Sequence to fold (686 residues):
Amino acid sequence: MRSRWSDAEAANLSGLDLLVYASRLIGAETSLVVWGGGNTSIKTTERDYRGREIQVLRVKGSGSDLKSVQKKDFPGVRLDDILALIDRDDMGDQEMVSYLAHGLVEPGGARPSIETLLHGFLPRPAVMHTHADAVVSLTNNDRAHDTLADVYGRDVIWLPYRRPGFRISRDVADALRAHPHAKALILERHGTINWGDSVNEAYEATIDLIGRAEDAIESKKRGRRVFGAAAVPALDPARRRALAVTLAPRLRGRLSQPKRQIVTFDDSAAALEFASSEAAARLSQVGPATPDHTIYTKRLPCFVTTDRVDDADALGNAVDRSLAGFVKDYTAYFEAHRFDGAELSDPMPRVVLVPGLGMFTAGRDRRTTGIVSDIYHHTISVLGQASLFGHYVSLSAKDAFDVEYWPLELYKLTLAPPEKELARRVALVTGAGSGIGRAVAKRLAAEGAHVVATDLDDTGARRTADDIVAAVGGGRALGLTLDVTSEASVRAAFEETVLAYGGLDILVSNAGIAHSSPVVRMELRDWLTSFAVNATGHFLVAREAMRILLAQERGGALVFVATKNVMSPGKDFAAYSAAKAAEAQLAKVLALEGAPHGIRSNIVNPDAVFQDSKLWSEDVRRERAAAQGIDPAQIEDFYRKRNLLAARILPEDVAEAVLYLASDRSAKTTGCTLTVDGGVKDAFPR
Ligand code: ZN
Fold:
C-alpha cells in the first residue's frame, strides 16, 4: 500500500477541501473501501447562522461514496451536541439519528454517517475509517488475536465485533481513554480507525497500518495456493461462454422472482479460480468480510453443487436445486433472526458461484450487478488472505442479519431514485443507429430499460448507446453491430446481450430497407434483398429472442415495426410491401405461439417517417415521387397532406407507440396493429 498523497496537490487546500482530497485518495483504493463503505471526518471551527464561533464535526454523509465524494457530502454536526452523549450507556438507533438531526449545522442536509458518534467521541482533529481487505484478513480468522499481536505489537488496540451504532462509539472512546498512547484501532471483522493532528497524518497512519498488514500477508503467502487444488477443472473460455449463454436466461428467470433482476456473468481469473476450488463449497458459506457488504451481496452466495459442469442440462438442473436450497436456508435465516418490522421481500441470492464456469451477480441494474461483483471480488480476496493465518471466520448469522435488515443501512438504498416503468428490463432494438430505431432506443432507455442498440452501421449503434449512457448512466446501453440477414451475426449480438444483462424482456424488430420499382422491371436480387432484410431478418431476431424469453419463463414483449403499406400497398413498391406483409404475418403467428408463455407480439405501422431516416434514401425518394407522379422535392409535403390529420410523422411519435406495446400498459394486447400515420383511411386496420 503506497501513499497517494501529493504535497503539491494538497498545498493550496485546507479544512474541508483537504478532507475531500484525502477521502478521494482513500476511495481510489478499492482494497480500502468499496461502494459507500468507510468514512472520514475533521473537527473544525465554524460560525453558525448567528455568527457565533462553534466547534463542528464534518463527517461523511450516509450513502455517499468516498472515491467521488464532494464537500456537500460532509454534513456538519455541532460537536458540543455530540460530546453531550459521551457518558451515556446506550442509545437507540432511531433516537441517535433524530438527535443528530437537531445538531446539523445545515438543517435538512445530508444525513451524517451512522458512525458519526464514533468520529465525534475520538478526541483527535482528523479521523479515518476504512474496511481494508488486508486488515480484515487479519481479523477474520480463528487466530486473529495472535496474528494482530504479531503484526502490530502494542501500538494498536482492537475491539470485538459490534454492530455500528452508539455502543461501538462508546467502546472506541473508552478504549482510547484506557490506552491513550495507542496509534490505531482495529474493529474486528469490520475495519480500521486511524487519526492524526492533521488530515495528512490521519491518512498516512491509515496507509501505514494497512501496509503492515499487507506485508504480513505477503510473507505468509509465498508459494501457497490458498484455495487448494481445483475441485472442478475450469472450462476453456469458449466453452464457458457457450454454457453461460445457455444458463444465464434460465438463471435470470429464476432470480427474477418476485422482481426482475439484471444478471451479469463474470469469469475473471479470480472468480473462476475461487468458484472452481476445493475450498469454495465450504469457505463461501461462512459469511461476509465486513458487515456493510451484506446489503449488496446478502450474507452468503449461492454455491452450485455439481459434478457435471460440462453438460448444459445437468448444470441447469443443478442450478435449480442449489437455488431451491438457498431459498430454503435464507428463509430459515430470516425466520430465526427476524425482528418487528423486518420484511422478507426477496429470498434469492445476489451472487451465484458455478464451479468450472465463474460467477453470476444479480441486481436492479447493471451498475448494481457491477457493485455486487466488485464486492464479491474483495470477499474472495479476504477469504484467501484470512485463510493464510487460520480458519476463516465472519460475523455470526445474527450479526449479519442485524446489518442486512438494519433500517439505517436500508436507508442508504432508499436514497436511490424511484424505479421507472421499464426498470430491470432489457430491450434489444434493431436498426437503432438512426431514425425510428434510434428514437425507440432512447425512449425505452428514458423509461428505465437497459437497451442494446444494434445496427448494421456499428458507428450509428455505438452513437445511440453512447447517447443513452450519457443521458441515463453507465451500463445502461450496449451498441452492437448486427446484420439481421446473418444467422451468425444475430446470434452473436444476442449472446453479448445475455452475458451483459442475463437475458431479454423486449425485442423491437425494426431494421428495414426500402426498394422502389415496378414489378416488370424488378431485378430478382432486389426482391431477394428486400426479403432478406424485411422478412427473414425479422424471423432471425424474433427466433433468437423467443428462445431467450422461453428459457426465462417470465413473459416478454415483441414489437415489430412494419408499415402502413401492409394494409394499403403502393404501386412500384412490391419488394418492400410484400416482405413487410410477411413480417406482419410472422408477428401474428408469434402472438399465437407466445401467448401460452405470456409473450406478446404486436405491430406498429408508421407511414412516411423521413427525419433521420436511412430508409428514405435519395433513390427511394425519387422513385416514390415518380410512382406518385409528383416532384421529389414535394414528397414530404405530399405524404403529410395525404393523412387525415395532415401530420408530419416523427420517429418520436413511432417510439411512443412502441413504448406502449413494449410496456405492461398493453399487458392485455397481443396480435394487434397500431397505426402511427396521421390517419390513412385506406390503411385502417380491419
Ligand atoms: Zn464501517
Remarks:
- Residues 115, 129, 131, 190-191 surround zinc ion (CB under 6 Å).
- Residues 7-221 form a domain with the L-fuculose-1-phosphate Aldolase fold (CATH 3.40.225.10).
- The CA atoms of residues 415 and 625 lie 56 Å apart.
- The mean pLDDT is 93.
